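User: Show me sequence and structure for the first protein, then do the same for the second.

Assistant: Starting with the first protein.
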Amino acid sequence: MVLGKHILIDQSGVISTLKNESLDDVLRQAALAAGATVLDSNFHDFGEGCGCTGVIVLAESHISIHTWPEYNYAALDIFMCGDCDPELALAFLKTKFPQDVFAVTSVHRRPPVHSPVLGST
């Protein structure tokens, strides 16, 4: 039983240089491309020359990011459940930033094998 799909992304390139408003806009667009419902967002800029961190809260879970422009690096995660497809959010980001490098790990989220919910002990 898969409850959701979680994509972990290590990214080098332009996205690592973006700040709050730009990241908010791009990640909202990625969420919508995946069929998700955006509920809220919160971003924090760590100052000149430093990165930022942020989260897009979805009815179906979240998209989060932390950037290190000094290393040309961003760490993202896209977690979605239901009918949403996080792969479509990733595809949007790859189209928006075609020159960036993406290293992707996908995880299917499910209860542990010995979960009482599944009837195992």
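Switching to the second protein now.
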Amino acid sequence: MRPEQPARSAAFDRSTPCAAEHPILIGLLADALGTGDVFLDVGANTGLFVLPIAEVVGREGRVLAFEPARDAARLLRSAARARGVLFQVSLYEMALGDETGSHELRADPALPEDTTKRSLYVDGPVVAEVPVRAFDELVRSGELDLARGIDAVKIDVEGAEVRVLAGMRETLERHRPRIVVIETIEGHLNRAGSSVSEVDAFMRDVGYGRMNDDTHRLELNAVFVPI
């Protein structure tokens, strides 16, 4: 049985292609995961992936959720508590990238109230100055314990996907998650100085290829599996 979908915020419009792809991605992740597994959600927002996947992995599993915006993180934590999955969720209020530092998190100028559109690489109103860390650095420093590995990854960071990937190359090569879901919107990637082709090239370099599944016809996200 597929997990129940979390309640959407007002900003989550089911008429958009991104919203239409959400249940497909949840289904693919749920099929790849089971009780006791570890899921990494980069750009967790208010929990659209965290909540249902936390139910899939159960209390024996673990969800590592990275969300730099304090208001979104607060809503995620509250929703996880209400849904009874807070025990297995570890929430890190920071952005991931390819080096240590800090960066202004900005709202989309056209949709400033939409928490799903915030980015380090958009010219909109500043939401906050947020810490940025490389995932591999967190592991090497001992701040993050990956003794149980990582079984699945989802990255949706409004353009900074390649930077996040560069900062977790060692983790991907060492732990070989079964599935990696990445938002691949060309315009978003371009504003951070990268592209969809660069995402594909990076993933090929670490031994992953796009899932060959004509059934789902994803347009805004790509699903990668080991090759």
